[in-house]
């Protein structure tokens, strides 16, 4: 048991986190200001809206070595641009099916609704995804 | 002045692109009069040795159709690249991997296993004999080209100067390209010799497209009686026109079928499938997650639809393979 834990600890998943400017990025900012401790595995990229996330960004992230992609947007009904988050929701639903065909587990792509005040939800989402990816193992990619 | 030399070659393809050359119809006579065809395996009896004997860069232009999936195809296109001044990727398979590129959702082992053992059409006595690169028979050793795990596009193997897209390209585009070459009037390198705007711009039905495309449901072509005078998308039929390069003059639409994307991505598109997913998810106008998923579930085989012609060219390129330690 000890050995397995030590082995799992060796793998540090790389998460590309695409957070919307108006809600989730602000929540991540708040988490920082509040000195919350959470897994350092997410590389946060600020986008104006979760609806701005082109599926190509996600594909590029996986191709470039990400083990997981976490998209964060405003809660349904709260989108700064009214319906960007709904588009993100539908894109993720379809994209996860495509990823499955490519042999990428759908859990590697996540979408979370996190409002600007929910700093603790950022902490939980990143921690949980880091743990889950650790169990899944690295997304090794080979073209040959 | 000697006539410019032209070559045609095919790799992993169906032969439809060769048909497109023949479809030049009487115009083919003008082409034949203006150029010297020095290599065209499907129509003329020249051999590889004839190409090898040519000086480097002596062929003015070579048209290669088909994706690259076997070792001999790589060998031939590298040879033709060396012998040619201009190399053109002709058709969807050479440009994007095309239909053969869909095999990138499998690999050599799983393809061989199905076709030479598991498929119900394989007779029991033949099962379990996958093709081998070398086999010894009483007469000596025979050699077959090696079969790769991954289908590649032409430009993933050799440098490509221009692309003529389509499955197959239209005779009009081929004719225009040949004329441009003969006149020495070629655009900058790497140009795709077709439209620069999406198909909708040249589609006759574009006027019937609503200002904002929002769909409450998706339909398959067999589910409705299609109104041939109304935008297919507006009728709920998945048409890839908005994300596909124009230049074909909406031939499929004229034939009452939606666009399936054979002309590939526009210049600014990073990944055709990604763009198609994005567009498709945007026009479904349902904000309830369970309801939206139900509608999107109606898209049978989404990967096969969004990457029908471009899987090999996609950012991911192929299905994940285990990395050997």
Q: Would you write up a description of this structure?
A:
The complex is a heterodimer of chains A (144) and B (325). Chain A has helices spanning 2-10, 24-33, 55-63, 84-101, 119-136; strands spanning 15-20, 42-47, 68-73, 109-113. By secondary structure, chain A is of the alpha/beta class. In chain A, strands 2-1-3-4 form a four-stranded parallel sheet, sandwiched between helices. Chain B has a five-stranded parallel sheet, with helices on both faces. Chain B has a two-stranded antiparallel ribbon with strand order 4-8. In chain B, 29% of the residues lie in helices and 14% in strands. The mean pLDDT of chain B is 94. Chain B folds into three domains: 5-100 and 157-182, 3-Layer(aba) Sandwich (Rossmann fold); 103-147, no CATH class; 199-306, no CATH class. The longest helix of chain B is centred in the first third of the chain and has 13 residues, at 71-83. Chain B is of the alpha/beta class. Chain B is built from twelve helices and nine strands. At the A-B interface, helix 3 and helix 4 of A face helix 10, helix 11 and helix 12 of B.
The count of strands of chain B amounts to 9
Q: What strand line-up does the widest sheet of chain A have?
A: 2-1-3-4
Average residue-wise pLDDT of chain A:
93
Tally the beta strands of chain A.
Answer: 4
Characteristics:
heterodimer, A: 144 residues, alpha/beta, four-stranded parallel beta sheet, 4 strands, B: 325 residues, Rossmann fold, 9 strands, globular
């Amino acid at each position: 048991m000890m050995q397995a834990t030590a082995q799992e600890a060796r793998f540090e998943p790389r998460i590309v986190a695409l957070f919307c400017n108006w809600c989730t990025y602000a929540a991540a900012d708040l988490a920082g200001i509040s000195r919350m401790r959470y897994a350092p595995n997410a590389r946060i990229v600020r986008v104006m809206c979760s609806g701005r996330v082109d599926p190509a960004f996600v594909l590029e992230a996986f191709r470039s070595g990400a083990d997981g992609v976490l998209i964060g947007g405003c809660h349904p009904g709260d989108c700064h641009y009214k319906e960007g988050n709904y588009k993100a929701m539908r894109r993720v639903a379809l994209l996860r099916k495509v990823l499955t065909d490519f042999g990428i587990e759908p859990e590697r792509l996540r979408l979370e609704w996190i409002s600007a005040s929910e700093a603790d939800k950022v902490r939980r989402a990143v921690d949980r995804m880091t743990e889950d990816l650790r169990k899944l193992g690295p997304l090794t990619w080979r073209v040959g | 002045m000697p006539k410019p030399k032209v070559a045609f070659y095919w790799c992993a393809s169906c032969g439809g692109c060769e048909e497109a050359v023949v479809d030049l119809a009487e115009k083919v006579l003008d082409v034949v009069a203006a150029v010297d065809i020095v290599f065209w395996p499907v129509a003329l009896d020249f051999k590889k040795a004839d190409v090898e004997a040519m000086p480097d860069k002596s062929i003015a232009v070579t048209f290669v159709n088909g994706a690259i999936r076997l070792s001999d195809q790589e060998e031939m296109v590298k040879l033709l690249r060396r012998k040619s001044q201009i190399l053109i990727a002709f058709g969807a398979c050479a440009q994007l991997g095309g239909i053969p590129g869909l095999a990138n959702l499998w690999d050599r082992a799983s393809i061989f296993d199905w076709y030479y053992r598991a498929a119900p059409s394989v007779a029991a006595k033949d099962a379990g004999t996958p093709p081998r690169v070398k086999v010894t028979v009483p007469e000596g050793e025979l050699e077959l080209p090696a079969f790769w795990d991954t289908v590649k596009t032409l430009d993933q193997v050799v440098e490509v100067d221009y692309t003529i897209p389509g499955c197959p390209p239209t005779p009009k585009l081929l004719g225009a390209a040949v004329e441009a070459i003969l006149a020495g009037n070629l655009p900058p390198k790497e140009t795709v010799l077709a439209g620069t705007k999406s198909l909708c711009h040249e589609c006759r039905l574009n006027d019937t497209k609503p200002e904002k495309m929002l769909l409450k449901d998706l339909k398959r072509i067999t589910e409705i009686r299609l109104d041939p005078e109304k935008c297919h998308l507006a009728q709920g039929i998945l048409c890839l026109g908005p994300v596909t390069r124009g230049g074909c003059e909406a031939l499929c639409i004229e034939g009452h079928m939606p666009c399936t994307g054979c002309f590939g991505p526009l210049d600014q598109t990073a990944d055709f499938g990604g763009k198609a997913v994005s567009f498709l998810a945007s026009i479904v106008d349902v904000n309830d997650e369970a309801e939206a998923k139900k509608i999107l579930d109606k898209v049978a085989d989404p990967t096969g639809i969004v990457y029908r012609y471009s899987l090999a060219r996609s950012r991911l390129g192929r299905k994940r393979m285990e990395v050997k330690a």
